[in-house]
Amino acid sequence: FWAKTAGDGQPCACVYSHCLDVGAVAEATAGALPAIVSGILPKGFAALVATHDIGKICPGFQIKCPYWSEKWRARLGLSAEGHEKRHAWVSQKFVASQYSNPPRWLMAVGGHHGRYLCEDAKPLLMPFAPASIGDGVFAEKRQELLELLTAEFGPLPDEQSVAKGAR
Asked: How far is residue 142's CA from residue 9's CA, in Å, rounded to a whole number?
């Protein structure tokens, strides 16, 4: 699944490598911060940052690239319409689904382009139509990517560690 395209519109970076890069930058940035600042980052923050684009593994985002769409839309049986296109929303909802009581700070995942998608935590649990965000192979690959990212960066933060700012 592509995450970035080159100037010619061809896919040039996959979601997996992009998320790994972003997680690694988060870790490196934390390492360069003064201890008084890095000390308030919760354990698992790099994993959380790395998940920011996991929602790009959805039909609405993937078919935005004509090259990808031509090659895969028919093979995966995707229609041209009816898919959620806001990958940040899909990322937020997917990451929220990993918690029994999603914390409000998960809005940061969906707000990584500068617009928050909800004002309180309750909408984090709103169900999404599996077909609109991609069920089957899309759902499997989102889960697989989460497992790869947490294997690399550790588990996602728990609610208490973020609330306390503990590392």
From this structure: 24
Q: Taking 50 as the threshold, does the pLDDT of residue 165 lie above it?
A: no
Closest CA to 83 of 22, 138, 160, 152: 138
3-state secondary structure of 164: helix
pLDDT digits (tens, 9 = 90+) for 53-70: 999 998 888 888 888 888
CA–CA separation, 96 vs 118, rounded Å?
Answer: 13
Q: Is the pTM of this model over 0.90?
A: no
Query: Alpha helix (H) ranges present in 33-72?
Result: 35-38, 45-50, 59-62, 66-72
- The rounded distance, in Å, linking the Cα atoms of 97 and 117 is 15
